[in-house]
Design goal:
98 residues; 4 helices
């Protein structure tokens, strides 16, 4: 019987362990070739792969959050610029530096 794990369940597997250990496991599997990974006993292989998936999921999530923050910041700056421009045009004021 095959079992599919969600990313939350994988993250829970490493709860109580230091992030340093998970990082070490991820680096260990990242340095190995697929043929060497297949030679490990199933328990070790699955633990290493789970550490890799957990770390990569966190990295991708962090990158997406950073990207979202940047997009929201750009939207806010663009809206601010449009409001300033419209205000200056309506009041016939020259835009002051800033």
């Amino acid at each position: 019987m095959k079992r599919t794990w969600t990313s939350e369940e994988l993250a829970d597997l490493f709860q109580g362990y230091t992030p340093r250990l998970v990082e070490w496991l991820r680096r260990r599997i990242a340095a190995e070739s697929p043929s060497h990974i297949r030679q490990h006993p199933q328990a070790i292989r699955l633990t290493l792969l789970a550490a890799l998936v957990v770390q990569r999921t966190q990295e991708v999530t962090d990158a997406l959050v950073t990207l979202l923050i940047q997009i929201v910041h750009r939207i806010g700056k663009r809206a601010e610029h449009r409001v300033e421009t419209a205000y200056c045009e309506r009041t016939n004021l020259a835009r002051l530096g800033g």
